[in-house]
Amino acid sequence: MILGLLNYWVVVVLMMCGLYIVIAHGNLIKKIVGLAIFQTSVFIFYISMAKVEGGTAPILADGISQYSNPLPHVLILTAIVVGIATTALGLALVVRIKEAYGSIEEEDVQNLDNQTQVDSQQQVTEGDQA
Amino acid sequence: MIAHLPILQVIIPLMAAPLCLLLRHPKLVWLFSLLASGLAFIVSILLLQQVMTSGVISYEFGGWEAPWGIEYRIDKLNAFLLLIISAISTVVLIAAQTSIEKEIPKEKHTLFYVLYLLSLTGMLGIVSTGDAFNVFVFLEISSLSAYALIALGNDRRALWASFQYLIMGTIGATFILIGIGLMYQMTGTLNMEDLSQRLPEVEQTRTVFTAFVFVIVGVCLKLALFPLHLWLPNAYAYAPSIVTAFLAATATKVAIYLLIRFTFTVFGFSFSFATLPLETLFLLLGLVGIFVASSVAIYQKNVKHIFAYSSIAQVGYIIVGLSTGTVMGLTATLLHMFNHALMKGAIFLALGAVVYRLGNIQLSSFHGLGRQMPLTMAAIVVGGLSLIGVPLTVGFISKWYLLTALLEKGWWPVAILILLGSLLAVIYVWRIIEVAYFKAPLVGKTPVKEAPLLFIIPIWTLIIANIYFGIDTRLSVQVAQSAAQSLFGVSP
């Protein structure tokens, strides 16, 4: 039962690890890492699903009649590209956040944001009084 | 040419995006993007005409027959959505150059248009395609460019908002990908038509149930259904004004389209509403969304925040319409998608004009703006009235259909709650009107001039559309109704 579905168990464990990291960690780089793990689990899921028992690689050859399904592999190539783009964009944003806030911890960024909000309100009320 | 319309719809903005990079000159790039978007708009009109007269259009890629090759399938629902997206995109682009001059550094102007066109491509692609995996690819094209567009905002909070949107959006898209994978595992097909025929054979399995749940949650994240809306307010508030106007009017609509497409076409109405308690779920979340988001909107100090929260509330109305599970309710949903795009496009463009003149969008800076920028403020007022649902505006039409659908179901209490929700909209719209018209301008502040013509033209085009489609409802109602009927399989 467990061994037969090993790939799927791996997928589930990786997926949950990834999601947990995204939710639980305040460090933005770790969040991106979690997201990447989460996406990778889906890639493994697609690739596992394509395997046909006793089937070989889908290359036409004499004496072979059973092939694995190549379509999910192709799909997942696309999804990997999407995943890379997402990770790259996410990391680029983290660089910009570091430049603008001086920190890559969620807590710090949120505190700084709240601070800006209070400041701008104070300025506005002072302006009103003036 | 006519036979290739479905692909032209997507390929025109897709090809135009890299060409922008070659042009470089900001003004030229703007005109070129406007041209590309305008062409997409014309194509969408032709498509709608063709669909309304001769039925569903199926376009096969590279001549590969449908379940094997990728198919673009345009029915009334798609054509309606394509029209909304390309129309809003074109109108918003008219004001783009003027607006981004103030909000985005000059060296990034070309990149802005590239991202804008890519985002447009993604949305048009999601709507056109009849292939479930293609949906995911286009979803990511539009989302990735949207994250980058939001990060262009000149406030540093835009970066943080964009990052949060990226995390939530990617989780949503990956959920959809998991759902599609599970469906493929059970049926061996990715074509939506084919899926809808094969899924009933295996619909009792837990795999299909899981697939359905993953897709629904993923799509609901994308459409900012309460309580999955947390990414939206900041993303809309700190993005450049043009981006806000474009995304607010179109992005959530595309996600709602996906929700309708998956629940009604792919999984089928009877499966969707029987396996999950979608009726109760959507009704409750929709209503809570309306009340929570509208109440929060009342207390916002940033005017963009007010209307961003109002967008979440409007998604609530759209979802309530969907929850009825009747032709009437679905018509109300589709109508409100169209109408809400018109209102929010106009309002956020007008706010863009305010930012252009004032440099900020705090409610407290609106003092006396009613007299200094009469045309812009009048547009916000008419748009606000439309949000409330005052007769002679489009908002009234969609509320009317929604109430009729609810009464048809016998859901009296819900109808009353919807009316109460509209009262909350009165409050937040009134706060803006009060400050802008009944407060004297602050002493010592230099008065501002009316917005430039390139703002006034698109804003008022949308406002006039708001009023026109509030009076002459033939086009919007007819299309929405027949699209709803065909989704239920009723011959019109």
What would you note in describing this structure?
The complex is a heterodimer of chains A (about 130) and B (about 500). Chain A is built from four helices and no strands. Chain A has helices at about 5-25, 30-50, 70-100, 105-130. Chain A has about 130 residues and is mainly α. Chain A has a single domain, classed as Helix Hairpins. Helix content of chain A is about 75%, strand content about 0%. Chain A is elongated and about 80 Å long. The longest helix of chain A is centred in the middle third of the chain and has 31 residues, at about 70-100. Chain B is mainly α. Chain B folds into two domains: about 1-275, no CATH class; about 275-490, no CATH class. Chain B contains 20 helices and two strands. Chain B has helices at about 5-25, 25-55, 75-105, 110-130, 130-150, 155-185, 190-200, 205-220, 230-240, 240-265, 270-275, 280-300, 305-325, 325-360, 370, 375-390, 395-410, 410-440, 455-470, 475-485; strands spanning about 55-60, 70-75. A two-stranded antiparallel sheet of chain B has the order 1-2. The longest helix of chain B has about 30 residues, at about 325-360. The model of chain B has no long low-confidence stretch (mean pLDDT about 90). The chains are: A mainly alpha (about 130), B mainly alpha (about 500). The interface between A and B is medium-sized, with 35 and 31 residues.
